[in-house]
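FW: tagging you since you asked about this chain on Friday. Here's the raw sequence from the shared folder, copied in full. Didn't touch anything.
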Amino acid sequence: MKSPIYLDYAAATPMDDKVLDSMLPYFKENFYNPSASYDPAIGVKNKLNEARSSIAYWLGAKSSEIIFTAGGTEANNLAVTGVMEINPGKNIIISAIEHDSVILPAKKYIHKIAPVDSSGTIKIASLLSLIDNDTVLISVMQANNEIGTLQPIKEIAQEIKRIRSQRLLSNNLTPLYLHTDAAQASNYLDIHHSQLGADLISLNGGKIYGPKQTGILFVSSRVKLSPIILGGGQENEMRSGTENVAGFIGLACALDITQKMRKEEALRLQDLQNQFFNKIAVEMPEVIINGSKNKRLPNNIHISIPGVDNERIIALLNNAEVYIAAGSACSASKNAPSHVLRAIGVSEEMARSSIRISMGRGTSLKDMNGTFEIIQKLTKELL
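HL: got it, structure written out here
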């Protein structure tokens, strides 16, 4: 009996065994509220602080710059809303292919959309032309969750640094911050804030073989935020509520594992990706590869199969126990063409013929070859 083939790692990753082991003691034996003052609770608080320090290490940050959140969506909301609320009347610029957890909070404020080219790469010149004296925040994701395109975050950060200097010379005291959503990137890329040049960075535990509903927002000490959850003042008064101790300890463990193996795993998956793309070029030349072919996540394959309805082929693949997606799991129920595909110029018809394959630690060459054969067979049957 053949095993199912899971190829939707961009939506969710299975929890690593070591992560689960790190979490288990904090569900029962060490259940204490870390805000309490007796010894067992202080012990739990110390372990939580160790987890925070471990995460800070991989971002090159201070522990005080790490805010625990209930996932990447909350981290993105806190970054956008937190900055904009404390800077009333100012504006935000976001890329056209951001996750909805950036797009929707941005829409509450004066906002501008920076375009991307046909590969999904932001047009830096166009972005710069949108910046005015009241721009306070720019949000550009490190890697796109649908088409896998990587963004030139470091170059954007350098331009922002230049504009900051110009503002100071002209006595414009409006701050200018860069936020990047690194939820998809942290499995394979360096997330050190000094390398990226970002002032705020969002991470999501559910994407890195850690627990779902865990995340962090790195907030540079120079950034001032307004909290969006009020209460007991946890997380330096930036995110109130009793901490999810087990979840955050698991998140720290997951990030540690992920960052230590990221280079080796990226090379392995890039080899599988290249072989799959080569098969497409030779055996299915009508198929269109969406996103950048060179600057993309090594686990991402996003293609359009002209004339094939994506819902139909996904259902047939499901019957064959091959699990893929049409795009972002967070917007899969909207029954509308992806805003990411629209932003890169894909027609509505072609968008409805697009599928996303996202590989992970459990993906083998056999899985990918088998998936290609099934897709090729189904395409012939559906056309």
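FW: The domain at 17-257 is CATH 3.40.640.10 (Aspartate Aminotransferase; domain 2).
HL: agreed, and The first helix runs from residue 17 to 23.
FW: great, closing this out.
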